[in-house]
Write a structure and sequence with these properties.
The structure holds 2 protein chains of 2 kinds. By secondary structure, chain A is mainly alpha-helical. Chain A contains 10 helices and 3 strands, in the order αααααβββααααα. Helix content of chain A is 72%, strand content 5%. Helix content of chain B is 82%, strand content 0%. The chains are: A mainly alpha, B mainly alpha. Chains A and B meet through helix 1, helix 3, helix 4, strand 1 and helix 8 of A and helix 1, helix 2 and helix 3 of B.
Chain lengths: 276, 91
């Protein structure tokens, strides 16, 4: 009976955080993992559940985003090489870290996500009149493409790849250590450092966080750190939440949700530090 | 202007089917005890781990077919990094 209550709670937490995370564009794991830790799960056990939530949310949103031509797979895979290497390193290191240290890392991650989420900027690249709907997509052999913005079509090309790649490596380490997606680092790294438009950066990040979490989860599975029933509850909840959140995103105001999320994350960070 | 890439055949249906399968398996795995529940939960986790990696395989194969060898090799490198994590964890 107690197991049922625990799994329903995990399901409900995963659904709620994935929905709010999808609406706010930060991902749900950065909320889910601290919530699980604050309600009694150890940081060591919560990290794999966070990655399950990320992978499930990434899969649920992926098919929908493919239709809009927003994902740039070349940018995603080129930067993901560094993020996955970071995730493997972080997941291996987390096996040796104390629960107290992981709580401090998690608090730092929640604080950084809150601050970066609130600071996210709007549109940088502008539409070009000569482009049409037939030009939408990514270009062969380069880190560039065209995406649709309202009635216009905007060309873009990734810049400062090395600086972006370094930040992707950092986001991978965060994912492996703390179980958060690292998307709150990846999207700003793509848009603010590499000058990829925010919408393309966010859609590409949704794809790449799935790969990062897969890399971390494989390490956790080999180390036998997965509670399969809990993983299943989080997986089901995250798919429901991410699907509902993506559908609600167009009706609600993401900036307002992001502000709420930012405040919530700062509060969570403070509580985690106090409890550690 | 650079050449526009074509859509990747079969990728979207694969992702849709896999996500629905992962959800169904996860529900069975979360709320059933015994071997059936454990097996379903394990398969659900395996499916959501496999989806992004299969996506990299689909994309890399597509790039190899259209002659974009540099990016096809980068996708192979990415899969090698993910695989190396498992090997290192086993040691």
């Amino acid at each position: 009976m107690r197991d049922w209550i625990v799994h329903w709670t995990e399901f409900a937490f995963a659904a709620a955080t994935s929905a709010v995370g999808a609406i706010g564009g930060l991902g749900g794991a950065v909320l889910l993992v601290p919530l699980l830790v604050l309600t009694g799960t150890s940081a060591r056990a919560a990290a794999p559940l966070g990655l399950v939530s990320v992978a499930a949310g990434s899969s649920a949103a992926g098919a929908r985003q493919l239709s809009h031509g927003l994902v740039n797979h070349r940018i995603g895979i080129s930067t993901e090489v560094f993020a996955s290497a970071g995730a493997v390193t972080g997941a291996l290191a987390s096996g040796f870290a104390s629960d107290r240290l992981l709580k401090f890392v998690l608090a730092g991650v929640a604080l950084a996500a809150g601050v970066l989420g609130a600071r996210r900027k709007g549109i940088r690249n502008l539409p070009e009149q000569s482009l049409t709907v037939d030009d939408v997509g990514e270009h062969v052999g380069s880190l560039s493409g065209v995406y649709q913005l309202n009635d216009g079509f905007v060309p873009y090309a990734a810049k400062r790849f090395r600086a972006g790649a370094a930040l992707f490596g950092l986001s991978g380490i965060i994912a492996g250590l703390a179980g958060a997606s690292g998307g709150f680092v990846k999207t700003p790294a793509s848009s603010e450092v590499m000058h990829v438009p925010v919408r393309v950066a966010a859609a590409t990040t949704t794809f790449t966080i799935g790969v990062t979490s897969a890399a971390g989860l494989i390490v956790f599975a080999v180390q036998r750190r997965l509670d399969l029933a809990a993983c299943a509850a989080v997986c089901a909840g995250s798919i429901v939440g991410a699907t509902a959140g993506a559908a609600l995103q167009s009706r609600l105001g993401p900036p307002q949700v992001r502000r709420f999320l930012s405040v919530a994350l700062v509060v969570i960070a403070i509580v985690l530090v106090v409890k550690a | 202007m650079s050449e526009l890439d074509t859509p990747i055949r079969g990728l979207k249906p694969m992702m849709l089917v896999a996500t629905i399968a992962a959800f169904a398996l996860a529900v069975v795995g979360a709320f059933n005890r015994g071997t059936v529940g454990t097996t379903a939960a394990g398969l659900a986790v395996a499916t959501i781990v496999a989806v992004p990696l299969l996506r990299v395989v689909f994309v890399g194969t597509h790039w190899w077919r259209i002659g974009d060898r540099r990016f096809a090799l980068i996708s192979i490198g990415l899969l090698a990094i993910v695989g190396s994590g498992a090997i290192i964890a086993l040691l």
